[in-house]
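Lecture 7 notes: from sequence to structure.
We start with the chain below.
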Amino acid sequence: MKGTITRCAKELVESTFGADQWLAILEDAKVDEETRHRLAYPTTDIDDSMAKDILASTAKVLGLTAEQVADAFGEHWCCVYAPKIYSSIITRFDSAREMILGMDKIHVQMTATIKNARPPRFDYQWQDDRTLIVTYKSFRGMIDIYRGLVLGVGKLFNEPLSARKLDNTQVEIVFG
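Predicted structure tokens for the same chain:
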């Protein structure tokens, strides 16, 4: 996984709960000093299990559920972090629907240009004009984070939508 995930998590925790809480999370996740420095670099390769441990420790240390962490991460990523780091990508889209449907193509482009990038891939199936089933394809199994990101995209575009995890590979998104 790329360090951009842990960098965003660090930014979220420090801005909302304080730097001391971020340090407590790293302690709980047993992240050594050398690795702590690497976590802040977006293109650094971070061990998947370590990133997952950090997210789990975030819930534990802050007294939140995993779903609350995923939702907070998704909102921070979409509304604060990504507009600073990935503005050239975000400005390609005019709506939440466009962005959600465009992320598979963006991820394909990322794998071609960023060494060792392995972002999730997505398949889309419309149930009706408002209901989209997204199949999340990743060996990482971070569908809860994906659901949180979908909610964050809705907030970014100030558009009402809901996202419900159907199973470990599918999310139902209802627009409007």
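Points to note: The first helix runs from residue 3 to 16. The chain is about 55% helix and 15% strand.
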